[in-house]
Structures are given as structure tokens and as C-alpha cells.
Amino acid sequence: MATSTMSPQPVPDPLSMHAASGASSSSVPPPPTAPGGTPSILEEVAAAQRHLRSRLAGALTKPPPGVAVAALPSVPLIDIGPSFDGTLESRKQVASQIREACLTTGFFQISNHGVSAAAMAGVLKQAERFFHELSEPKKQAMHIKHSALFRGYEPHDYTYVNPDDMAGAAPQQETKEGFNWGYEEALDPTGGDGAYVELDGSRPSAAGATATTTANGNVWPAEEDLPGFHAAIATYYGQVLQLARHLFRLFALSLGLDETYFDGLMTHPGGIARLLYYAAQPAVEVEVEVEDESKKGADEGEGDTDGHEEAAKLGLGAHTDYECFTLLLSSTNPGLEILFPPSAVSDNKPIWRPCPVRPGTLTVNVADFLMRWTNGLYKSTIHRVMSKPGAGERYSVPFFFSINYDGEVAPLPERSVGESLFVPLKAGEYILERLKATKLLEEREKEKP
Ligand SMILES: O=C(O)CCC(=O)C(=O)O
């Protein structure tokens, strides 16, 4: 996958709470087209891939000599509990913290988000059962190659998101295995509005449904094979979908818009979700340098300079997400890494930093469609998963939130994001083009001798 490509414009903070919150020109790629023109999606994708390559080529994996880990950027934690207290003032205060994170890291973690501990534990437990208890033939019967919509089981070597990762080394197989499904009215606590369409604008057809395939093309293990699996997925999905809608209202506020601004665009949203499994890697003996105390991790999960980087396997290659934003639940094993943009503290080079492990929280990251919609103001940040020796297995459940795939996307008001640089287009069209471009890149890579 690739990063999106847009140039930020200096716009005032419409919330007037963070006067210093300007867009950082260092963290987004340069404009991809001739002055005066708007880039085509293909130009955007090509520029995005160039940007990704250049970022990866110069990226640090350790702090520069003499720089303490605590001085490096990290992922902020936002308590969104107050946004549920019923007052607009509280929601605006949370929105202003979200704004700050979106302008800088593009990543933040949220606590007191309303998704129950039972729902989170339930879906992670089912992920473990799916990958360990379901027989290989049953998983293969749900292989994503049988699905035009990439739904179902994805073996670890079937796709890889970025052949450019690992700084020019030969492309590695990723360690991840996946199980993918998408939005269904039956999974939406609101029941939806009966108007869901797929990425290409087509209406899901009930004719395609079988005992293990639902109308929207989702594929599920038979109940007798994994009792309780579907129920646990439905519980978690319903809660995280409602949270995503709540968060998108906060995003609207964070852009100085009315909080209901996006409501009409999330009545039948795109919401692809995955169970991901990263197998444990055997521990290896490495010479560990004795570290200066001051360089130790300032946050949970940040003690990363342990000498295991070289032996680490690529779990999921460097990429950005395509939709509006992602809500990620993960087990407590680390592995997610974020490519922070160049800054003075990292010798003006991009630097990989581990995402903190904060149990009970969800990690949120801005994705490319929202970055594009906000003219690059909100950052869609490159990330990947590394499976380090001895770190144990990791499970995660990303939920990729998109507005209605058929929603007409008008430019956001200039007072919020400046003059629009991009052709307006539907979210489904955009995501489909990005997926097609990724597929092309992947195929080209596989054809290389
Ligand atoms: O597994 C994780 O922690 C991250 C997953 C991810 O980045 C993705 O699915 O896009």
C-alpha cells in the first residue's frame, strides 16, 4: 500500500483552542502535479509510492546517538470519556485534543471509549480460536481468493502490503494471517438505512448468500465449528461501529464544523474489519548493549533498543490506510511501529517508533481519504508491524471506518481546510482505485525475476 499525497495549507484553527496547531509541511508528500492542475488518482498513487519509498530509505530504527527515547515523539493518550457527558463544551475539549494529534502524529490512543472490556476480550479470544482451532481445510474453504471483495481467510503468504519495506532488502513474506469481513446491516446496531452499497456502488445481492456467506459477501465459519464466534464478532463490531460514528462527530468538531456535519454520510458506512494473527518468532541470542538509563522507554512498550531489530520479521509491511480512520484493538504484545516524520530530534530523518501498549485503549489513526479530504491537514501516517524474536504472538482487530461508499463528497469548507486541492469523488471510488493500484504494484513486483 502507499501513502496519499497532498500538500498542507496553513489554515487557522477553527476551534480557536490551539493557536499553534498549524499543519507540519514535513510530514506529507509534495504536491503530485503541475501547478494549477488537480492530480488524477493514478498520479496520487504514484506520488504516494515515491513518498513512501523515500521515507523508508532514510528511516532510522533507533534514536540518533545521544538522543533519549523520552525526547522522541510518541502517541498521545486521549481520555474521551468526557465526550459522552452530554455537554458540547466537553465534546469540544476532546475534539481539540483529537485535532492536535491529527495535525502532528496522525495517531492517538483513546481511553474510556465505551467499547466494553468484555467485547474487546471476546473478539480477541475468537481471533485466537479462529487461527488455532479451526482446521486448515475449513480455513482454506473461506480463502479470500473465492471472494471478489477480499472477504474471508487470508494466509500469511497470499498478499503483502509493501514490497518497498525493509530498506531495499529482498521482499520478505509477511508473518500476518487474516480474516476479513465488511459492513452488514445485521451488524449495525442502528439497523442501517437499507441503502448500503459496495465500493463499486453495486447493491449487495441476497442471491449470493449461502449457509456460510451472508448477503454482503461476508464469509463466516459454521457455528458448529466455532460456537460463539459470530456472536462475539457481532458484539464487538456493533460497539466499535457506534464508537466510530461518535468519533467522526468529534472529528467534525475538531475541524470547526457542526458536529452533525458528517451524519448523513455515515448511515450505511464502509466498515471493513479484520482479525490479524502474527505468529510468535523464536527467541534468538543477541549481544545486548548496556544502555544509558536516560535512553530507556518513557512509555509502556517503548523499551525497543534491545538488539532484536535485525532478527525481527516483517509482520505487516509499511503502509498507510485508505479510509477515513482506523480503530485498532490489539493484544498486549507489542509489534506496531509508526514512522514519525523527520524532525530536529531525529536528525531530520523519519524514525520508526513502537506504538505504546496501553491495555484497555484503542489506537486511532487518520487514513488517506480523510487526509485528502482535509487537504493534508490531518496526517495519514506510515506504520507497520514487526514480529520480534521472543515477543510472543500478537492478535489485532483493525476496523477501517469509511463514510458511505456512495456518499457524494464535497470539499470541506475553506475556513476549515483551505482551498480544496483535489477532485471531489466518492469514498468507494477512491478506495477501489487505491486497492486496484496496490494490486497492480503487487503483481508487477511478483513478476520481477
Ligand atoms: O496489527 C496491527 O497492529 C496493525 C494492523 C494494521 O496496520 C492494518 O491492518 O492496517
UniProtKB/TrEMBL annotation:
Domain Fe2OG dioxygenase positions: 282-403
Keywords, in A-Z order: Iron, Metal-binding, Oxidoreductase
GO BP field: small molecule biosynthetic process
Pfam families membership: 2OG-FeII_Oxy, DIOX_N
Region ranges (Disordered): 1-40, 289-309
GO molecular function, one term: oxidoreductase activity
Comp. bias intervals (Basic and acidic residues): 293-309
PROSITE patterns linked to this entry: FE2OG_OXY
Gene3D superfamilies reported for this sequence: B-lactam Antibiotic, Isopenicillin N Synthase, Chain
Family to which this protein belongs: Belongs to the iron/ascorbate-dependent oxidoreductase family.
The protein, known as: Fe2OG dioxygenase domain-containing protein
Organism: Capronia epimyces CBS 606.96
